[in-house]
Amino acid sequence: MTRFAIPADHPSLPGHFPGLPIVPGVLLLDEVMQAIARRDGTAPTALLRAKFTAPVAPEEAVELELGPPGARVSFTCRVGARVVARGEFGCPSAPSR
Known about the structure:
alpha+beta; five-stranded antiparallel β-sheet
């Protein structure tokens, strides 16, 4: 399980949305992609599906759970007990060692 938070001073937040900032879904997906790349040694190449089920505020701790490595890697993002996003990325084979 990985944890991350998007800082309140992130440049995308002032316009998303003024007075009530929420973290854009693309930032959550970027964190997921980075976590997969760190774990598996290769970056995802395709977003197969994604569903955003609740907003995430700046500075909120997001817990990321990844499915097993493979051609398709599922993910679930939670803030506390609340699921905020889930989906699946397509991934190339891990590099040979």
